[in-house]
Amino acid sequence: MKAFGLSEAVSNIKSNWLFMLSAIAFFCLNILLTIENVIAVALAIIFCFLFSIKSTSVFMTIKTSSFAAVAVSFLTAVGVCLRSGMHFYEIWSVSSMIKSLEEMLPVSVNIPFVIAVVGAVFSVFAVFVCVLLFWKEMKQIADCNGIFSNIKIAEIIVYSVLFFAFALLTVISFLKTDAFYATEHIYDVIFTSDSPTLVKGNAYLTLYHTENDIRQPLFAVFSAPFTGMPYLLGKLFGASASVEAILLNIAQLIMLFAANFVVAKMLEFDAPKRICYMVVSCCTYTVLLFSMMMEQYIVAYFWLVLCVFLICESQKTSQLAFWGTGGTLLTGAVLLPFMSTRSPFKDFKKWFCETFKYGLGFIAFIFAFGRADIFLNLVEKYNRFNYFSGHSISFTDKLVMYSYFVKNCFVAPDAGADFVSAGHISWQMSQPQTFDFIGIAIFTLAIISAVLNRKKKSSLFAIGWIGFSVIMLVFLGWGTKENGLILYALYFGWAYLILVFQLFEKIEEKLKIKFITPVLSFTFCIVMLIINIPAIKEMLDFATTYYPV
């Protein structure tokens, strides 16, 4: 291999100087004047400089990309930078220091506005290149693994009908109530969600949003390619807060449907069974709830299942997916030991080296996007988040909550209007008192399915993920203090749905009757809808009554 020389470094710098300056503008536009943040931005600029030295001209990426990819990436970048500029102005326009400086100037100048506009314009190129590289990588992942190959016409029709039904639900709900995105209360309006905080502050595009902390250090980075353009459209057409939320949520719906489809592909289903899986998933309370509740878990779920799919396919192209799943919810980093294509039992040394390389790459990626600050205030964050753990809840009570959690991944919990717990009227789950036998039954069936399908990687990952959910929600008790385990149903519930479906398939295989899976799926859907539709309607009635638009 030819050594990398000084002449090449100089040549690359000459080719990439615009990218480097644009990236610096972007990070400076997003900077917060704390010691941790200034250090993080300084490190990001250093990484940007190293990238510019090591990479050939970024213009080649543009030249070799399709017009559609370039257009989408550019519009997305404009949306991201518009949000960064507006966020900068929101923060600095109320700064007393800036106001004093403006008074000292001989002419009237709105300093924050000027900097915001100039910074946003200069930032577009770097963000555009990053988004374009992202979509090129995503296309390669999809093409190499045949994710969207062999899709039948019937599938397209069914998925389209389902998607438009959910989009219509979003439109109708959001035009009647702002409970899911913009109430005066910033948290705990619908269950224990933080949706108003996330949407009002646009955590989807804001790199240093308060919720994008150690738990979701790169959330904005991995949601921006999907949400940048909807945000831009909303601002260009002067949309109301309701319409902006609808556009943003439809982008999330696309990610949700794509993630469920990837799960169906991971199970190696044919078209009819994929349709069954997609229909059943759409009837679960989890999907019905999260299609309206604008939390961060849809984005995290998308990256998690994509990473698991690529690991099951033994593909080396899963590094981006690993960064995505670890960056959008840090618990996803638990997949690190499975990233290597080597076996730790057959070749431990090479497995360890590859795993270490992936882990180091993830940390470097965090630094490169200006999030080194999360490592500089770990003690403070730990003390804050330790409050939400279940150290004050008995182990038995946590097991009781988990049994209900398993059931609620499929059917609605017992919930209603609460006038006390949140300090304002909200929609909360009832406190469980005894073990839920339906949840225990589903848990038992999942274990049976995992045993029967133990030769399948997807089954092993599913039962492993269920075990991880037990560690997080029972042993660590995350969310039990607030009785808010429903928030984690999407992130963990897919594992139960996989094993339930694989049990359907195993029954069909043993009985040698091909229509068993469709019949069981149809029955499962009917049962879930009988319970879930009235529950969703009751929640929406509450929202429109107490939080009308």
Give an overview in words.
The relative contact order is 0.10. This protein has one domain (146-546). α10 crosses α11 (271-283), α13 (297-312) packs antiparallel against α14 (319-328) and α18 packs antiparallel against α19. It has helices spanning 6-30, 35-54, 58-63, 67-92, 96-104, 111-145, 153-176, 195-200, 219-236, 241-266, 271-283, 285-290, 297-312, 319-328, 348-368, 378-385, 395-408, 437-452, 457-475, 489-511, 516-546; strands spanning 415-418, 426-429. By secondary structure, the protein is an all-alpha fold. A two-stranded antiparallel sheet has the order 1-2. It contains 21 helices and two strands. The model has no long low-confidence stretch (mean pLDDT 92).
Strand runs, count:
2
- Return the structural class: mainly alpha
Q: In what range is the share of β-strand residues?
A: under 5%
Unreliable residue stretches:
none
Task: Give a quick account of the main beta sheet: strands, pairing sense, barrel closure.
Answer: 2 strands, antiparallel
**Which oligomeric state applies?**
single chain
Can you give the mean pLDDT? Answer: 92
How far is the N terminus from the C terminus? 63 Å
Shape: globular
Q: Tally the helices: what do you get? A: 21
Radius of gyration: 24 Å
Number of domains: 1
Helix share of residues? 55-70%
Helix and strand pattern: HHHHHHHHHHHHHHHHHEEHHHH
| Arrangement of strands in the largest sheet | 1-2
